[in-house]
Write a structure and sequence with these properties.
There is one protein chain. The chain has a 7-stranded mixed sheet. The protein has helices at about 30-40, 45-50, 50-55, 60-70, 80-90, 105-115, 145-150, 155-170, 175-180, 190-200, 210-225, 230-235, 250-270, 275; strands spanning about 5-10, 15-25, 75, 200-205, 240-245, 280-285, 290. Strand 6 and strand 7 (about 290) form a beta hairpin. Helix 1 packs across helix 4. The chain has one domain. The two termini are about 30 Å apart. The chain is α/β, with parallel strands linked by helices.
Length: about 290
Amino acid sequence: MANFVYGDSCISGDDKYVIAQFRHDAPMGWVAELRAFLVKDELKYKYFQPERHRVVANKPLWRRVRAGVERAEITIVDPFEYQDRVLFDLQESGAEPGYDFDDRVVFELTSNALIEDSPLRAAQMSQFDWLANDFDTGTPEGFSTQQIKHRIGGRRRDAVVTAARAHAMVSPSEKWDLIRLCGGFDMPNMMERLAIIRRMGRVFDVEHAKSVVLLNEFHDRIAEAAQMPWLRTLDGSRRMVTEEKSEAIDHIQGADIAAGWAVDTLMLTNGDYPTLALQFAWVSVNGVVVPG
């Protein structure tokens, strides 16, 4: 599917949620080579990792694998950063643990923060103004923070996955495009608007169907704000966000390798994001680009 971006995810030992993505035009021949070398019908990091030494020993193959993996774009959501902020705000307000709040309250507030710090916040605005200070008015039906949480499953885990996928759809470098697109000033021409909206297309590995429904609605709301409500009709039955099984899609299999690679790097470097950023096309953490 032209212009789509393909992604897969992995969870680190300290609960960081990592999505790796490849653009549709990324060369993926290395995936088939590595799959054949490992004698597997489907390429996954769990098959690659124990055989890594053999791949490294095959220097031509190793060069191609490294060059391929380095094209991945890495999106990370760290829920504990949000949890720490929640705890700090509670303590600053004078709330006492065990009396004014417990773990359930902290988890609930952390889920709220994950959603509200993601690009989905734009879809909570009647005018999609990313720069506004007041996010409590004009919220479209079904897109308040509480409604989003209910629709995606209600758990913190659901909020993590959905927020990460939203960040993956709208990278930090692409947020300015959405500001121009939906902010009511310096709006691009129709063809530029169409290109920006189409770049939001994603194909994820099968994992979280409820987030797919919500993210497609998010895409539709962006199209409406960009004065292109007819886009959904034009695209017909094709939705801009889908989940597909990875067996026949080399891009998703490659993303599985890149996501596992990123998690191992984080574990080996004690979570050093700048080191991780040196190994990939770009890395963002909770919506902020990490310089490499």
